[in-house]
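During the reporting period the student researcher (J.K.) took over the structure-prediction task from the postdoctoral fellow and processed the backlog of single-chain submissions. One of the processed entries is reproduced below for the supervisory committee.
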Amino acid sequence: MFRIALIEDEKNWIDSFRAYLRQYFAEKKDAYELDVFTDGMDFISDYKGGYDLILMDIAMPHMNGLEAARRLREIDREVCLIFVTTLAQYAIKGYEVNAFDFLVKPVAYELFKIKLDKVREYTGRRSSASFAVRNAGVMRMVPLSEIKYVESVKHYLFFHTVTEELKMRGTLGEVKPLFISNGFSEVNRSLLVNLAYVEGYTPQEINVSGEILPLSRVYKAEFLNALTKFVGGSVGGKNEL
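J.K. obtained the following structure tokens:
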């Protein structure tokens, strides 16, 4: 599901972008989700992350797009941002907040399609290998290959990477599908381990890059099956047990 936020205060352009997105994703035979905000202040105050693309008008009441983008970058440095404006010289300022691109009104569908193709290619490469972690109020894209294991404690997730530990509010069930499909395995109710870092195991424990973690009997067969497939698909190196 490709998630988009549109921050635009003109109804005619909201309707146009809705129509463009319907046409684009119908042509691609793909699914998308759109959230619309008519004010930059409302967007920032309600921001929870999780978007693949933000389309932001520059000229808006209460808080213009540039100011909203500056505040956005304080909490999310990675999300793909495209400015929409009537004057190209305003869009140049977008590079101060790491904007991906800009569109000048009036926007033709063919140009919109080209820009969206570029965004999806970029976000596809990034999201296939990374996960967005909101740690200490800042959104970061963390490569999955650097995450050794994910631990769930009460209402929080702890991402143990090769260099640090990151904390984010959430549940294991929310992230499990992505991690399982990218070389992780569930080893008990509160742990997902990266199979690339498994150095050994016993009937009750797993050695993950030198750390000993508990292996639940309930998940043992599932873990061993996943590990066997992973090792079988790896070529040499530390993945061999």
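The committee noted the following: The CA atoms of residues 183 and 195 lie 6 Å apart.
J.K. will present the remaining backlog at the next meeting.
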